[in-house]
Amino acid sequence: MTDKKNETPPSQPEPVASSTSPKNEWPALDKKNKTSAAAPEDIADWAVVVDDSSTSVNVIAGVLKGLNLGIHTFRSASAALKYLREMPDDDFNKIAVVFSDMDMPNMNGLEFLTEIRKEPRLKNMHFVIISGQVDRSTLTQFALMKIDGYIVKPFKAQSIIDRVTHALTARQKEKATGS
Q1: Average pLDDT in the 112-116 region?
Q2: Smallest Cα–Cα separation from 101: which of 71, 73, 131, 80?
Q3: Is the peptide bond before 154 cis (omega within 30 degrees of 0)?
Q4: Tell me, which fold does domain 14-177 have in CATH?
């Protein structure tokens, strides 16, 4: 006999993320990590943070919370990619920026970005790479893939704020021009 109460229903992705929204509508989210006072429908802009280091995730999420952004966190790029692919359009359209670590097991940040850019629905997402080190060759790859910026660890909160401000400004212009 199998224990059905711990199984994830087949129609929903397995829980792989956490969110700062108190009543998140996305069933895959881990409901334990909620700190935002606003309901998901009241949050206009969301960020996705992908990093295998819980310390980095917590630091970035702390800065983003101060900017009143909703936050979805993932410990792997493959989980984030799956989630973004399956996300309902109304929720997907609220994603303002993706922050991704460069050095992760299984799928690194550059591989994640490559997959994002292949998908018609995902390809125009604002994407920021975070890395402990960035060499000239990697910077060239980033430029060719049209990332919105990179942040070198260790970083200051202002670096995150600057990238979010840039992404939100660009997003506003895109909405205004319909592109």
Answers
A1: 94
A2: 131
A3: yes
A4: Rossmann fold (3.40.50)
Helices (H) and strands (E) in the chain, counts: 6, 7
Residue 29: its H or E element: strand 29-30
- State the average pLDDT over residues 60-81: 94
Residue 59 Cα to chain centre, angstroms: 14
Beta strands in 70-179 (DSSP E): 70-74, 95-101, 127-131, 149-152
Question: Alpha-carbon distance 71 to 149, whole Å?
Answer: 19
Least-confidence region, from 31-35, 67-71, 105-109 = 31-35
Give dist(CA 50, CA 109) in Å, integer.
9
Domain boundaries, the chain: 14-177
Torsion of the alpha carbons at 77, 162, 147 and 35, rounded to the nearest 10? 20
Q: List residues bridging with 29 in a β-sheet.
A: 17
Give the 3-state secondary structure of residue 48: strand
Could you tell me if 49 and 57 are in contact, meaning their C-beta atoms sit under 8 angstroms apart?
Answer: yes
DSSP 44: -
Q: Which two tokens stand for residue 136?
A: 């000239």
Q: How confident is the model at residue 134 (pLDDT cuts 50, 70, 90)?
A: confident
157 touches 63 (CB < 8 A): yes
| SS3 call for 95 | strand
